[in-house]
């Protein structure tokens, strides 16, 4: 007995259409064994077989399989049980053309669809609630959580959120929801409720719109692209650092080296102290992906003076040794984005770098070969920030050390020249 698979050209909520299609397959000698995005058949169908979809779980004690009482009752009426279709129907069939219908009238058949109709309404309401909650959480993230921030700005990071939103994998996921799932949901609701409302009014169900090539394409897309999309989303969440994260010494894209910025001999912790720091975040570079910023990466550097103090890994204002080792650090993020987004993205990244318990002073200065230069300093504190931009190229720096970023604008501006 051979197995044959076919893509279903009907919505599973188009009850008349699906039943008629199964009967057409039986006339070709095929009997169904599975219905989903595709149908599985065996070549043991009997021409003239009738199929009926019976919605389940309307009665007490009935779950994902029909009760023995139902099976016996239907068998006595001439109907045999085939299998369950998702969480919606039991499929029954008969080869006797004289077997009476499962339901004695249209209204009783309509009542059998109550649970399925209510389930679809509930699913629609849950989706509305879910998207509303996501919107509320997004607004809460903008307006809450600033209790320790001495300079809160609720909207300054929106340009960065926009860049993250244009991650290709995220866009593919959202496109699947809005341009794939929503039309299918609307069509399924229309198919079910047109049948449900007619039957409850004692009328025959409206005729099926017939087989649809679009539904076939959608089911093929679900079979092919669904697993790929799930794998991409999981990899994006849990595994992409293996692809995007690199030690600085292996990174080939341009960046400003902390060695060039500082005036004292420096080295990584392992070189200075001859042992592993145990910190995986030191001196690494990471790439990000956005359709609005095809080139986007961050380089983090944390070095120590080769003339160490007695206590390591603590910033000291004295670069020539002393009680604590001088340990400057420099973080840089580079974007190549759309020119109108350049300055807003620069301000957003500076706000992301900003230590929220410090009060920052911002200043814009002119510098040859740039469209803008923004400097940020903290009074009596080593932390500084700078952003330079030209066209769509932006470089944002966050630095802790004895040097003044304002004295090195020629070096910083090289990133956007």
From TrEMBL:
<dbReference type="InterPro" id="IPR021359">
    <property type="entry name" value="DUF2812"/>
</dbReference>
<feature type="transmembrane region" description="Helical">
    <location>
        <begin position="160"/>
        <end position="180"/>
    </location>
</feature>
<feature type="transmembrane region" description="Helical">
    <location>
        <begin position="220"/>
        <end position="238"/>
    </location>
</feature>
<dbReference type="Pfam" id="PF11193">
    <property type="entry name" value="DUF2812"/>
</dbReference>
<keyword id="KW-1133">Transmembrane helix</keyword>
<keyword id="KW-0812">Transmembrane</keyword>
<protein>
    <submittedName>
        <fullName>DUF2812 domain-containing protein</fullName>
    </submittedName>
</protein>
<keyword id="KW-0472">Membrane</keyword>
<feature type="transmembrane region" description="Helical">
    <location>
        <begin position="128"/>
        <end position="148"/>
    </location>
</feature>
